[in-house]
Structures are given as C-alpha cells and as structure tokens.
Amino acid sequence: MEFNAPAGENLFDRAKIVGKSTPRIDGPLKVSGRAPYAAERHDVAANQAYGWIVGAGIAKGRIRAMDLDEARRAPGVIAIVAATEHEPVASSDFNYAPLFGGREVSHYHQAIAVVVAETFEQARAAAGLIRTSYTNGEGTFDLKKAAPGAPLASDRPSDSAKIGDFDAAFAAAPVKVDERYTTPDEAHAMMEPFATIAAWDGPKLTVWTSNQMIEWSRQALASILKMDADNIRVDSPYIGGGFGGKLFVRSDAVMAALGAKAAKRPVKIAMQRPLMFNNATHRHATMQRLRIGAERDGRIVAIGHENWSGNITGEAGENATLQTPKLYSGANRLIANHIAQLDLPEGNAMRAPGELPGHLALEVAMDELAEKLGMDPVELRIVNDTQGMVPGEPDTKLSDRNLTRCLREGADMFGWSKREARPGRSRKGRWLTGMGVAAGYRAAPTMKSGARVRMTDRGQLVVETDMTDIGTGTYTILAQTAAETMGLPLDAVRVELGDSSFPVSAGSGGQWGAASSTAGVYAACVALRRMIGEKLGFDADAATFDGGRATLGVESWSIRDAGALTAEDSMTFGEFKKDYDVGTYAGHFAEVKVDAYTGETYITRMLAVCDAGRILNPLSARSQVIGGMVMAAGAALTEDLHVDKRFGFFANHDLAGYEVPVHADIPHQECVFLDTLDPVSTPLKAKGVGELGICGPGAAVANAIYNATGIRVRDYPLTLDKYLDRLPAIA
Amino acid sequence: MAEDGFMKVSRRGVLAGGVASAAVGQASILRAQDSSTGGAAKQAKVPVRLTVNGTPQELELDSRTTLLDTLREHLKLTGSKKGCDHGQCGACTVMVNGTRINSCLSLAVQHQGDEITTIEGLGSPEDLHPMQAAFVEHDGYQCGYCTPGQICSAVAVLEEIRNGIPSHVTEDLTGRMRATEMEMRERMSGNICRCGAYSNIAEAMAQVAKG
Q1: Treating both helix axes as pointing N-terminal to C-terminal, what angle do B198-210 and A618-637 enclose, rounded to 10 degrees?
Q2: Predicted complex ipTM
Q3: What are A616-630's pLDDT values in tens digits?
C-alpha cells in the first residue's frame, strides 16, 4: 500500500483501542524475568560454548605479535580466532570502524581475538593469557586541536547552508549573542550488553542477537562475512535498550560467528561492559558557536550556528545544527558543520543524533539572548516561531506544527509566571532555585515498513514483522493497530517481532519506528480484510470491522468464517511527503535547586508538553518522553566520556565511571501530549516521540541553573567544579 | 613490566585463578591450572548447595562462578540480568536470605546453604507479585532489562524501610521510618535504568508501599 496523499477521516478517528493508554502486552514477561534476551536463549541451540572478546590495548598502530600458546593450552579452550591468524573481515555500508581488522588497529579496544571455551570462566581466564605486542602509530585524539583545520562536512545538504547575508545582518543587529559551547562524547550505555549467540548449519548462519535494525544487520553481516544474505537469519525479539548503539552490527555478532565456525559449535558472547565504550560507537563530542542577532523587540534577524565534531574516517559527524533551521525565523542564516578526522572509536547515532547537543547550545543561546533583550525566554521563542513556514524553504509546507501552544500551555502548567527573572535572586534556605525553558524540535520521518498478519481458524490474529521493540512499546502499539483495524479485542492479537524471516520493517531508529511500523501493520491488515471480504463475498473497503464481525449496510459476517488466512503488505510513503516538513515539537521546562554552599544541583521538577500527532499509546509514549528527559538530564549534568588524549581512548569505560542519572537524580516528571493529528505523517496521523523527549530538556536544566545561580557554564556537563568558585556569596 | 616476576605471579593468581580473595577451592584450582595439559584438562569443581526460589539445588561448579552466572547459565534462571558484571548497575539484584545483593559480586561458593529468591520466585506472568503488577500498571520499565533487578530491589527496599534500616537521606533516625519518595529514590539508586523509567518506578513503589 502506498500512502500517497494526506489521510482523510478514517477508522482511527473513531478508534476504540489505538490512542488509549494500554499496559504493555509484553509487560508480564518482562516483569517476571521470562522475556528472553539474546544471551539467555539456552533453548535455541544445543551445546553452546562461551566466547570472550579481546580488545586492542592501543588506539592506533599495528599488532606485532600475539602469543596464543598459553591461552590455547588453558583448560576448556576450544578455539581462538586471533587477528594475527585470521584475515580482517570485510566492511559494510553500516560501519565506519572495522569490527575485526587483522593486524591494523584503528581504535582502542577494537576486537583482536575471540576465545571460545566450554565455560564463561574458562574463556575469560584464557583470554587473560594472550600476550599481544604492538607497534604504536600516531593518532589524533583531541577535537579542540583538530577543529581549526577541519573541513566543512559535505555529505548532506543539511550540513551547510547560507541564506541572505548573515555577516552583515549580524553585524548590524542591535542585540546579539555570540557564544561558544562544548558537549562531550557520550555513551549509549544501554543496560543489556551487546550479545549474540551464533550457530552455523552448513553455509547457513543464525544469530540470536540484540539489534534495533534486523534487515540492516542481515545485510551488514553478509557484507562483513562475505556471504549470501539469504543464508543469514537474525533474530532479536527482546532488546535491552539500544538508543542507536544497536542500530548496526557490532563485534559480538561478528566474533560469535567466527568463533562458532572455528569451534564448530554454537557460541555465545555477551560483550564485557568495560569493553563496550571503546569497542562500539558513541555520540561525538561537539564544539559549537552560536551567533544570534535580534531587533530590540526580540525578532531574530540573523542566526548562525557552526559546529565542529570528529570521527574515525573524517566523515559523518554529530550534526548539531539540525534543529536550528526548523525552530526559529530570521531572514539571514548561516549553518556550517565541520568534521575532523580523529582516531577515537567510531562516532555514530545516539538518540537524537545532532539534536541533543544542538539543543544544548541553541536553547541556551536563546536564553542568553532573552536576557540581553530583557525579554521573557518563553515569549522570545514564541515571537520567533516560524509561524507556518520553514525559513529559506518557501516551497515546503508544514504538516502540523503547534510549537507555540507547547510553550504557552507548558508555561501555564509549570507556573512559569512565578519565575524570578533576575538570576541568583531566588533563595530558599540553603537552596538557590531557578526555572528554565527550552523549545524542542525533532523530525518525524517515516520509512517503508512491512508486516504479515495471519488469522487462525479460531479467530486469533498473529502479526509478524522484523520490527523491533527496544523498550519503545512496539509490541503493544502493533497489537493495538491490528486489533483496531480488524475489529478484534486486543487479547486476540499476538505480535512476533525481530526475526529476519518476517517481512522487512522500518526498524527502530530515528524516531521513525512507531509511525512507520503501525502503518505497515495497517497495510497488512487492510490486505487481510480484503481477503476476508473476497472469501465471504463483500466489499471489505466499504465494510466496518468491529467485535469480530464485518458489517456492510444491513448485512454482517463473522470474520472467523473466512477460515485461516495470511496476508502480507508494506506501507510505502509517496512523493507528496517531500512537499512537507513533518516535525515534532515540544516545550520543555525544568526547575532546579542548587546548594548555595556546595554547588550540588538537584532537578526538582520537569515538564514536557509535546506535539507529535496522534499518540498511539499514551502510557508508553509518556515513558518514551520521560526517558528522553532523563537522558537529557544526564547530558546536562553528569555524562562525559573522558578522552585520554595521550593514548586515545575513553578512560571511564564502565558504568561506575560513566555517570548516567540514577533514581536519586530524577524527580517526578510530567509529560503532556497536545491533542493533535498529523494527516501528512501516516494513515494513523501519528508521529514518533522517542527522540523528541531528549531534544531540549538538557538546555532547560542548564537555563534553570543559570536562573538559580547567575552563573553561565557553556561546557557540558555542568558539573559543580565548573562553577563552585563563582557561586554567589553566602549572605 | 609483564616480565617482572611479581606481575607474573599476580597475573596467574588473579586471571587464571580468578578467586584470589575467595577462601574456598583456591589451592586445587591453581594446581589444575598449572598442570597445563591443554584444552581438555579437567578443572577442579566445588560442590555448592543452595535453595533457589524454594527449590534445593546441588551443583558442581567452577569456584570462579558467580552467583549470577550460577543462576543464569547453570540453573537457566535468566531473569536476573547481567548488565555490567561489576556491581555497577544493579540488574543482577536478587535476595539472599531476605537481603538484596548484587549477585554478580558474589561467588556461588560463598552461598552454601543460602536461600536465594530471584525475580522468577517473586511471581510468574500468570500470577504476578504486587510489585510486578504495579510496574506493569505504571509502565515502570521500557526495555525490561534492568526491570527484574529494579523489582527485586523495590521489594527489598520497602522491607528495609519497614525494618527501620536508615539510609543516607533518613532525617529522623529514631522515629518511625516512612517510605517517602526520597527514601525510596535514594535506596533504589544502585539500580540503573538507562531507559529512564525512574519517575514511573517511584509511582509503582509508592502504590505498593501504601498497600
């Protein structure tokens, strides 16, 4: 089915199941510990051996020798696949750094061997007996040093743009901000490690793994292992978090496949946590410069956003300017992304790639501008809302945009009017208190998505798609969509996900998963309805499906009477969507208290007001948003991969050193969805929210800290060492 | 430095033995390792008896086996999760004789005769523990990977508060302990949820605490 025109009124506008808060259908399995994650699938292959990945001890250079003898003699060892004895694996379209690169070391903790043994303990112990010597190469590890010579990125049109005459307009603007901001490298730090069980059956390979994008991974494995994709099955029904870190195949899958071939046994690998941070991908650090010039009434006349980041191949950086062309008006504009070559591990997508650090800079710059103007920061954003157009794109229409409502309604709910505008003036006992606001924008893309629906002769419906649920609530929204479309109760629907033998879906990434995959299931269900209609002799497109029956005029049929049927279809998205900017919008608010004596910051309240079209399941969508708010709080306050610039690696590569928010850091959070519909998005008029929640809250926290203390810190995270000496005097 | 004598001993003792700090089984393991008879060598195993979710278990284990791996790999009770294997994330939280611990930080041989309760022992999909049901109701999870540990901790935290065990944020150490939001958040802070379900977990716990 092609979605080739904006949706008119349809069955989802009269929905009984879609759009209603629904506890996750996979919930009982998850809370009782019965949902099987990748490394837990004892049942899928007999005689599983254990693999342990050895990571390179240098960041750049060449392996001189590996002494494997002692390890090979160690108890329980079945096989060792080592870089000095095995050719490098091939690359794929989905990886920048090699996953197993022979003697050449491109980054720290790159996989250089896998030890396969009878038990986990034996594999780990034997791995510790491998002696590797290296010839060190020269590497570039310092973004700040590399940035001045970094060329403009050129792989995407969004990487650089000039509209009007930015320099002249900025120079002439009566009120202006010109500031620089930095954001650090960050880790996905999903709770489930990269994990794979790999098993060979002749030329056929099965990987039970933890991955967001099943078809990408099947294709990538085919390229990497130089084999026919048809001989590969990828299965990933439960995924313990991804946030972009599991978009692509990682070395656990590759080394498990190689290890299983060498051992002639199925091999299970769960990557050890301390290897993950340097072995896999991370969010790139950024350096940003914001220049915003405004008239005295607050209207922006010039906005310039320049960004520098680095990556292992010198391409594909963290495009922190993405939101800037969409959020605010202004006739004269400059966008520039520079990308340096660095020899750190591969930078790649992490939740809202580009927008998370982009909002951390842009939305603080807006706060700084508001202060210079003597204007309320909520009002400044509303005055500069693009109001019905995309700046510089006169031919692009907005599908549905309610940013001003998000900000106004959020301000009302949050009690914004009680905010003391003068920073550092609100004190309750030992606490300096403050409020901050930020706007949020995140695109709402859709991708082709397929599904198969099987109706059993008992009237049960089984949905099969290679779509994944990474905590996003996919199982439930797909069941809701199928139940609604077929007129069945929710508990008559079973959903099977993540298996490459199922139809190819959009997968989970880029905030496209929910909107795309529900549209795909809708397409398959429409095909099934037509099959039922053909079988029973009625026009399914004209009929109403409800309560297990199809009704047309005065006639009615039990759909079970059609017997067992299977239908498959995909939703594709037509050219008309290119005429539109389809986005999601938010007003984010935060309140903090800062200890006047110690500088410790506590977030006391957070609110997101979101505009994202129809919300398919408000219960799980809210969780997506508050989860983004938590991760944004981490980005603002604690998260920082520290680069060892001498040896070229992330030094704090575990969950003790890399500080993500914990319970004590996060207060009760509010999330409100505006009751909006976006007919340009999909037939369900829904858009994603998983990344909207992280776009802005970090800046709202930073702005609240400024409001509390009067100290502006522009280098994230805002740890107290950066402002302790500037706290207001204790009166 | 690796050729230094001290380092050599240290590496063998720690990496090969892996149980430098455990009293049980150390000598026999080092003997087995030093025999260097190749991949097929038999390793010393230690008998371990424990009761897991009410069922007595008798196992023969490599003495380096953690309680977590005993549960996950030997008893195939995979509800307890391995998030870090270093006591940094809390996903492996189980109850031992009624007290919560990080099962990855504890060797099975330390638990002779202990009563272990895992997430599977709290309830089943058909018969959820009230805390498990509250997590479903309040959506106190997303990916689900930290969830068993969160739930085991949540159940234990309410018990700790009932038993008057103070925490870092307890203001009145001699008064009646109350399950306030800050008490619960403080005590749950060893259980990381990267999906960020904290606000919902707090609500689920508050509901169960009210009874």
Answers
A1: 120
A2: 0.97
A3: 999 999 999 999 999
